[in-house]
Amino acid sequence: MTSLNLRPRGFSMAYSDAGKGLPLLFVHGYPLNRRMWDPQLQGLSDVAHLLAPDLRGHGESQAVPGPYSVDLFADDLAAFLDALGIRQKIVLCGLSMGGYIVFAFYRKYAARLAGLILTATRAAADTPQARLARDQSTELARQQGVNAIVEAMLPKLLAPVTSQTRPELVEQTRQIMATTSLEALLGDLVALKERPDSTPTLAEIQIPTLLLPGAADQIIPFQEAQAMHAAIRGSVLEVIPQAGHLPNLENPAAFNAAVRLFLNHLKPTEML
Ligand code: MLT
């Protein structure tokens, strides 16, 4: 796995790159960064060309002030692919906020997509209660900084079994979140709060789609993925056991096996 940098939209964007073949682009969640995809970059480099950027402001990408939106992130990703000279169709994989961005990307750039992988995410917009919670998080972040958000989120991010038995993974997740800039965190909160309802998009999805919720997700219950499965024609649902909101990190073996199978079943014509 190589760490590289590009400047496709006037700010420097860091990304990890591994493998060859069909491009598989990973989009991280809030308030995370590309390091959350390390188990995929390590475990799947024999099946695809894996790309995992840090979204603007996150990880090692430049801290750019918000507000952000899911459409803005989708445009960043399209510009990122252009800068890499990738014209063939890609598979797009998003976790949670990354999934909200996948829906925005689908609405704008469907012709660039060969398949979707949606993990620990939902189609619906924020409820009024969730919007209120975004405002409270914004206030907390402004007053007490990024770490206050990290500590508030951490107990809910991982499955109880993960938190109880894998202190090293809890610490790793904390470290990943702690590198998020305040600009990105505040920008994300606007993107999350203002994102549109993607439920109408589900019926429009015409490409192979894999849904990978965590069985013990305390932030987005796996029933959300069951509802998406019912609405996306031909989609495949696999609930990842022993995993909460970060199934790819908590159970990389099951996650990677499901992705590998999905990629192997993509027909060559779907990639043209
Ligand atoms: C995420 O992991 O990206 C967030 O939990 C998404 C959200 O809060 O809706």
- Report the bound ligands by name, code or SMILES: D-malate
CATH-assigned fold name: Rossmann fold
Helicity, as a percent range: 40-55%
Order of strands across the biggest sheet?
1-2-4-3-5-6-7-8
List keywords for this structure.
272 residues; single chain; eight-stranded mixed beta sheet; 14% strand; binds D-malate; 12 helices; Rossmann fold
Describe the protein's architecture and organization.
The protein has 272 residues and is of the alpha/beta class. It has one domain (2-271): 3-Layer(aba) Sandwich (Rossmann fold). 46% of the residues lie in helices and 14% in strands. It has 12 helices and 8 strands. The protein has helices at 38-43, 70-83, 97-109, 128-144, 146-157, 160-165, 167-178, 182-194, 199-202, 223-231, 247-250, 252-265; strands spanning 2-6, 13-18, 23-27, 49-53, 90-95, 113-119, 209-211, 236-237. The chain has an 8-stranded mixed sheet with strand order 1-2-4-3-5-6-7-8, with helices on both faces. Strand 5, helix 3 (97-109) and strand 6 (113-119) form a beta-alpha-beta unit. The two termini are 26 Å apart. The site of D-malate has 7 residues, from loops. The site of D-malate (MLT) has 7 residues, from loops.
